[in-house]
Amino acid sequence: MPATLYDVAASARVALNTARKALQGDPTVRPYLARRVIEAAARLDYRPHTLARALKTRRLDVVPVSVINLHEIYFGELAEKLSNALIASNLEPILCTEPDHVFELVQTLNTCGSIFAYADFDQLSHPLARTQPVVTINAPFHRKANLGCVNADFEGGFRRAAQAVLSRGRKRIAVLSEIFHKIAYKNWPFDKFRAVERTLAEASVAPVRPVGEPCFETLGRLIETLAEGTEIDAVFCENDLWAARLFGALAARGVRVPDDVLIIGCDAGLILPGCWSVKIPIGDLAAQAVATLRRLLAGEVFIEPVIVPLSLVDEDGKDIA
Amino acid sequence: MPATLYDVAASARVALNTARKALQGDPTVRPYLARRVIEAAARLDYRPHTLARALKTRRLDVVPVSVINLHEIYFGELAEKLSNALIASNLEPILCTEPDHVFELVQTLNTCGSIFAYADFDQLSHPLARTQPVVTINAPFHRKANLGCVNADFEGGFRRAAQAVLSRGRKRIAVLSEIFHKIAYKNWPFDKFRAVERTLAEASVAPVRPVGEPCFETLGRLIETLAEGTEIDAVFCENDLWAARLFGALAARGVRVPDDVLIIGCDAGLILPGCWSVKIPIGDLAAQAVATLRRLLAGEVFIEPVIVPLSLVDEDGKDIA
DNA sequence: CTGAAAGCGCTTACAG
DNA sequence: CTGAAAGCGCTTACAG
Questions:
Q1: Contact status, residue B189 vs residue B119, Cβ threshold 8 Å
Q2: pTM
Q3: A33 touches chain B (CB under 8 A)
Q4: Which of A57, A212, B137, B227 has the largest CB neighbor count within 10 A?
């Protein structure tokens, strides 16, 4: 049975409230009493009971963090960085994989705010913001009380990446992405590859893609197309893992990277020789998200969206102009 | 202000306790009253207050899960699978990146058990097991009350992998692993590559490695050694990411995979053409961990360790004999 | 500056 | 089968 505040007070021979004040460093407690209390607490290995406190104060310093797809390296790293940033900020992170689950938690525990790391949850995050601060990461911005918003600048990042590819004289440019294949032109707000398409269009370069489809959906399809003799000299991939798979498939067929085909991945976990990668500054996203949450908790109501820039790097992590 | 049980009872014109029983489906409540209560609860959008309940029952159905290094694909996937398995089992997962943090949570919230997904935390998990069930994943087994243990069979898996490599006639076998380089022979319990070494030794094959070192620490070092003319025809890598990096470095130098060098990765996230990978059944680990926790919660005190087998697969995910 | 009382929302005996 | 009372461990007025 762990010691309660009552035990501490009894052991220090003071009133309950005095014990509490002493432990919270309230200066209105006489020093010699405070000392007695603190010693008693140490002796009894007293720890405040978070539940009881939260029940009374109606506030648990717990922040549910919704991060889906933890098996993807981007989300895993984001979850880790968010956790660390919250702890450093004296908040208790609770990672959830299911966004609905955050919703439940918030209704049922007295959480103090939450963070959503995915675009598609307006219908969850907005009602939540009526009760308490919510920060979204890479979700569309809405000007709304208690709602913060931190976004990576996919548009700018991929525009610059496309320009860099064009500036190297590449004109037969393809996109390999299952997601873009599925949701292209569906008004998805963070459509990396639409920025690429727009940039190509401005340079009057038509992307290489299967007739009637927005891009290559599978690696097999892309390789097939190459084998049929269609020329491709650069490929934007959904992420670094797909970039590596493409690298492997090309290497197995004797296609040289980057001489024949330049490969551009994303997320910077793994950049193979000659490849490029668009780097998402995950640590910055996490830090900005927690900073925004802090501002909301401190009472700010409307906060402008925070935009975090991306960069384009080579295999050594060096910036590419 | 959310509705409380008191509100529901008042609205249904029954006593507090009757309302509670009705909501919990207690058959001793008269049906017509139960109906009134349930309707009132629905009308008021009542949700039981988890904190208050836990304060009284001294039991929160929350399971802290300690998973470090979430940015690594293995841990990310494990965290995700554990979360899903716990939710499916009606327990509330709380993911923590810091193991010490779990310790704090358990002392401070009334959690009902916890899961540690890393080997090195005996000094945390064992004291915890005095209070409540603890399940470790890939940690050394200790016969101890309230302590469950689920382990992947690294020894067997890598032994079979090494045998498969030998059976293909490869004799110049190297290991590329920063971790093994650091902790080899330090009694680390899940030393994948020690199993490889033993298997080679039994076949009287000496591993290829820098003089006086347990293995290659960096990719650069391995490539250098190859360039100097040392023959290597198979490399065990720490994981699939390093396998891919090695693949890339070899491809850039015109070395053929697997003809010249066979690459064996681990974790099966990413297997490039011609490579092999030792597959850790993460879903099974998670399922077994939750099942073990359930048994401990149900009152079993001593549980034998659960061993989950690994498999060796090729780029298509097919088993290799 | 200190201490006794009420109450957060629930559950658990227990009396009717 | 139903309902009034006590209490989980804290905090928050408030009286001394």
A1: yes
A2: 0.88
A3: no
A4: B137
